[in-house]
Amino acid sequence: MIRKAVLPVAGFGTRCLPASxxxxxEMITIVDKPVIQYVVREAVEAGIKEIVLVTHSSKGAIxxxxxxxxxxxxxxxAKGKTELLEELRSIIPDDVNIISIRQAExxxxxxxxxxxxxxxxxxxxxxxxxxxxxxxxxxxxxxDLAGMVDAFDSSGQSQIMVENVPxxxxxxxxxxxxxxxxxxxxxxxxxxxxxxxxxVDEAPSTLAVIGRYLLPGSIFPLLAETPPGAGNEIQLxxxxxxxxxxxxxxxxxxxxxxxxxxxxxxxxxxxxxFGKQHPKFGNDFQNLLARYAGxx
Length: 296
Ligand code: G1P
Description:
This protein is α/β, with parallel strands linked by helices. It has helices at residues 35-45, 60-66, 70-78, 82-89, 109-114, 117-120, 144-155, 219-225, 236-247, 264-276, 282-293, and strands at 4-8, 29-30, 33-34, 50-55, 97-102, 126-129, 133-136, 158-164, 174-178, 188-196, 207-215, 249-253, 257-260. Bound molecules: 1-O-phosphono-alpha-D-glucopyranose.
């Protein structure tokens, strides 16, 4: 059972500037919701009940977004705007808690996850979702994170979501090597090596870590001992590679689509995808796209 998820949100979002100068990059809107709301919904749909935000003093808007806004709700209620009110109230289900903890220094993703140790403890498995990355599982019976939870429950092994990327993109990702490189979407198989942001010549494959992980609490002592790696940062990938040597780690190949919203084109693609499938605006948006399609 995986009930807790860690979302590292302390980063400054340099890649998203100028949009992220005065608002957290996680609060940038995709159609009608901030990026982080999609990620939290993905976690909740996979059974997560406790979301641990590893955050920074400049990121208060994220906590506010998931908090009850009593005055706004009273005002909407008084005006009879019940549909909007319901939408606000459903941002986070009543049985899901948001907890936040600060990352005092930007020492890397591995360090950010280590900051959640006092909340998670060393004996409980947990999920990690990187909120720059959106996963679109539209039309699937269950989302990819839930697929990973199933694989974790049946094998007891840590799961890392992966997808193929073009060769010229491997240096931007954690890359995994597999004994059997022919991993099909929805399947999970043992990882034989893992390296953070390798050059294309050093990369064991083109299967990239997509920002979704299911890890045991025993990753925390490993993170605490992990020295700075790529970019002189404490890398989650390096600690997972040590975990792999000790007890094995599996890669889960995603079935859905993914967009890197920390990159402008990835963000635009996410808007196109989520706009087209939006229950309220989808049809009109498709008409707009058709209208613009022929224009230079
Ligand atoms: C992080 C991880 C990397 C992963 C990537 C996914 O890198 O360190 O292994 O492939 O997220 O987006 P970052 O994008 O934070 O540099």
